[in-house]
Specification:
This is ABC transporter substrate-binding protein. Belongs to the bacterial solute-binding protein 7 family. It is found in: Cell envelope. Residues 1-23 form the signal peptide. It holds the Pfam family DctP. By secondary structure, the chain is of the alpha/beta class. It has a single domain, classed as Bacterial extracellular solute-binding protein, family 7 (D-Maltodextrin-Binding Protein, domain 2, 3-Layer(aba) Sandwich). 47% of the residues lie in helices and 19% in strands. The chain has helices at 2-23, 38-53, 71-80, 90-93, 112-119, 122-135, 176-182, 194-200, 210-215, 241-246, 249-283, 293-300, 315-327, and strands spanning 25-30, 58-63, 85-89, 138-152, 166-169, 185-188, 205-208, 224-239, 287-289. Strands 1, 2, 3, 4, 5, 6, 7, 8 and 9 form a nine-stranded mixed β-sheet that branches. The longest helix is centred in the last third of the chain and has 35 residues, at 249-283. The N and C termini lie far apart (83 Å).
Length: 329
């Protein structure tokens, strides 16, 4: 009788704890950005919204500032199942499916309006579907990361000024298209190590959007900011294939709605920030310059469809992207 009671108690406990585990599953969301940046704060907002809208079935923990690895590592972790959701630059996603990185070609966008139209375009939906088919993951949303600008300890106002400089770029092949166009020596360094590399003189400069230059404090170790706007950067929110397959249809809908809303919220914050930051940097004693963008653009455009320079898209995809610009006139 005692044995029967113990067995019944054990089964009840298993049912209780098993039910709890089933009621709330834990997921890991990894990215390389700082905790004060819009990407992270909106990821926290999204995690809370998903938890509430799924009646606490999904508890998402967000790991910021490369806590779970740099971008190549977290992209690999998505495939291995060690992370469930990531933010990643389109150039890093392009290491697996090259066409998705088309938006990272230097000066491929005419202006912010061109990018904003692309973000809502059928072309982007087609490219994301291609990535999904290639990987089995689910690319859900695109967030504006900002126009990338050069920093250094000297003025760079035309492409020739950058020739031979050691320029830190992210560890994704497509960034070499820009350095090739200006004759700089590309030096791939993990994001978390850039400040120290600039401080120690391992590299002469780096390039990132203004909100990132502020958040990562690169301006502390660089005297000049050149508003080159050479790449209009964006990041994908991607749910790993194992996690996506785990979700039921109702929860998939919640994830998509919330993650897309978070992307829109973060995009607006980043756009607003980059418009006000040039004056803020001047107030910090930095030299903020307007380089000859036309000259930089002229140097980059011949490489847009050069496979040897990193182009991994078709001419048809390229023409569709350019047609979006015409439609926004």
């Amino acid at each position: 009788m005692i044995r029967g009671f113990l067995a019944a108690a054990t089964m009840a406990a298993c049912a209780l704890f098993g039910g709890t585990a089933e009621a709330q599953q834990r997921l890991r969301w990894a990215h390389v950005y700082e905790t004060g940046e819009a990407y992270h704060t909106e990821a926290l907002w999204a995690a809370q919204q998903i938890k509430e809208r799924t009646q606490n079935r999904w508890n998402i923990e967000v790991f910021a500032a490369s806590a779970l690895g740099n971008e190549p590592t977290i992209n690999q972790g998505l495939s291995l199942g060690t992370v469930d959701i990531i933010y990643t630059g389109v150039a890093f996603a392009g290491a697996t499916y090259k066409p998705i990185a088309i938006s990272n070609a230097p000066y491929i966008f005419r202006d912010y309006g061109h990018f904003a139209a692309y973000r809502q375009s059928e072309l982007l939906r087609d490219l994301m579907a291609g990535y999904d088919k290639q990987t089995g993951h689910r690319s859900v949303a695109l967030t504006y990361y900002g126009a990338r600008h050069l920093t250094a300890n000297r003025a760079i106002t035309k492409p020739e000024d950058a020739r031979g400089m050691k320029l830190r770029v992210p560890q994704a092949p497509l960034f070499l298209m820009f350095t090739r166009s200006i004759g700089a020596n590309a030096t791939p360094i993990a994001f978390a190590e850039v400040y120290l590399a600039l401080q120690q003189g391992t590299v002469d400069g780096q390039e990132n959007p203004l909100p990132t230059i502020q958040a990562k404090k690169f301006y502390e170790v660089q005297s000049h900011i050149m508003l080159s706007g050479h790449i209009t950067e964006s990041i994908l929110t991607i749910v790993g294939r194992a996690t996506w397959n785990w979700l039921n249809e109702a929860d998939r809908k919640v994830f998509e709605e919330v993650l897309r809303e978070a992307a829109t919220r973060a995009s607006k914050q980043i756009r607003d920030a980059e418009l006000s930051l040039p004056d803020w940097f001047r107030q910090q004693g930095k030299t903020v310059l307007e380089p000859d963008r036309a000259a930089f653009r002229a140097a980059a455009m011949p490489l847009h469809n050069d496979q040897a320079a990193g182009a991994g898209w078709t001419k048809e995809q390229y023409d569709r992207l350019q047609a979006i610009a015409s439609a926004t006139n």
